[in-house]
Write a structure and sequence with these properties.
The protein contains 14 helices and 2 strands. The chain has helices spanning 12-29, 44-56, 61-74, 81-103, 115-145, 152-179, 187-205, 219-251, 255-259, 263-340, 342-365, 370-397, 410-416, 418-425; strands at residues 33-35, 38-40. A two-stranded antiparallel ribbon has the order 1-2. The longest helix has 78 residues, at 263-340.
């Protein structure tokens, strides 16, 4: 397993690419130093190094160390070797510290599409490493160049602002490109936004006083980029604006050259503008994305609740329909069984009617004997009651009337049918 601070064979290509970019931009940035060899007003390698370690891993830190040394000697540094070693070690250590503070032990970079992760990125990845690198650098310069203590705060500020602006813009672009690439349906609009940013930045920073435009005229464009395209759009627009602003100062034109008497002072004003603008616009983009995602989540939850309600309603309807169908089927089955029993029921009723008819016949024949009349009438009444009972049983079977369950005295029932049986059987 490769350690986080060990360069493995697989990382050689990424390390060489990071080294080349660091050296090239370092040589350019070291042209704008108050003290030859250190304290550059702009430090583009700061953002490149931070982005490289965040994307490819902490084990690429040697590329930053070596890149800082090569950039210094290619630019013709006048600092002693031990001072350049201190500068290189400070840059590598503070960059690695910023990456570790952002990722933590998990090694996972936070998404920049929410407010709190964006604030953490700004503080622990930009402000803290830039301030620490500037502190290491100014302390080294104090001992290597014999600076006065009164000069150190201004040198520290220039160093810190140069690093912070580069990290905020370049690192934000690299991370947002990986985390939130442009969807295919937004590529045309995103391209139009980049083109508008390039045109606006060129008009503001690369023209003379004849064009009455100032840096704050670009704020509507940056706000549009942040609200429409999120962190990626805001960071990309900021990168274009930063590039045009630096190019304008190099050429001696633009609003910052009108504020300062020399390019170094103009670059210092530019870095202040970039830090404040980048912080504002990136926070705006993060808040916009967070609210957009929250609104999308609420819409999805509302749609899910609606679907659940609709599903429950349909299930309830189907359950009720199934219950009605089952009830109708059960009733139909009972009626079918009742129809099949019609023959037996008719036979039972026929016997009852025969009993009643016979009882009345016997009553009519023995009208003179009151005792016989009463007995035959009682037999007919009992037959009638059995008919009523049979009717109740049929109604109960069809669930129209409840069954009345009670014990039957078989002996008494048979004794009551004695005369009927004697008269019928003989």
């Amino acid at each position: 397993m490769t350690s986080s601070f060990t360069l493995g064979p697989r990382d050689l290509g990424a390390a060489l690419l990071l080294l080349a970019a660091y050296v090239a931009t370092g040589v350019f940035s070291l042209q704008w130093t108050a003290i030859h060899g250190a304290g550059a007003a702009i430090w583009i390698p700061g953002g490149i190094g931070m982005a490289g370690l965040l994307l490819a891993g902490l084990r690429l830190w040697p590329a930053i160390f070596v890149g800082r040394l090569l950039a210094a000697y290619l630019s013709g540094t006048q600092q002693p070797f031990w001072a350049e070693l201190a500068f290189a070690a400070g840059n590598a250590a503070t960059t690695a510290a910023g990456v570790w503070l952002l990722q933590g032990r998990s090694g996972i970079t936070l998404q920049l599409s929410e407010l709190r992760p964006m604030l953490r990125f700004m503080v622990v990845t930009a402000l803290v490493p830039a301030g620490l690198a500037a502190l290491v650098g100014t302390t080294t310069l104090y001992f290597s160049s014999g600076l006065r203590a009164a000069d150190l705060p201004l040198i520290w500020l220039r160093w810190a602002f140069g690093n912070t602006a580069s990290i905020l813009v370049i690192t934000a672009v690299a991370l947002s490109w990986r985390q939130h690439p442009v969807p295919p349906q937004d590529r045309l609009g995103f391209g139009a936004m980049l083109m508008a940013s390039a045109v606006g930045a060129a008009l503001v920073f690369m023209t003379g006083p004849e064009v009455p435009l100032l840096a704050w005229h670009l704020y509507p464009l940056l706000i549009w980029a942040a609200l429409r395209h999120g962190v990626l759009g805001a960071a990309s627009a900021l990168l274009i604006i930063e590039s045009a602003a630096i190019a304008g100062v190099v050429q001696g034109v633009g609003p910052f050259m009108q504020l300062a008497s020399d390019p170094l002072s103009a670059l210092f004003y530019l870095q202040q503008f970039l830090v404040l603008t980048a912080s504002t616009i990136l926070l705006l983009a993060a808040v916009s994305l967070e609210r957009r995602d929250k609104a999308a989540l609420e819409r999805a939850q509302a749609a899910l609740r609606q679907l659940n309600d609709e599903l429950e309603r349909r299930v309830q309807e189907r359950s009720e329909a199934l219950h009605r169908s089952q009830t109708a089927l059960l009733q139909a089955q009972k009626m079918e069984a009742l129809g099949q029993l019609t023959g037996g029921i008719a036979h039972d009723f026929n016997n009852l009617l025969q009993t009643i008819s016979t009882s009345f016949e016997l009553v009519s024949r023995r009208a003179g004997s009151a005792e016989d009349v009463v007995r035959y009438a009682q037999t007919g009444k009992q037959a009638t009651q059995r008919g009523v009972k049979l009717t109740r049983q049929l109604l109960g079977f069809s669930r129209i009337q409840a069954l009345e369950m009670r014990p039957v005295p078989v002996k008494a029932l048979l004794e009551g049918m004695t005369d009927l049986l004697h008269s019928t059987i003989g």
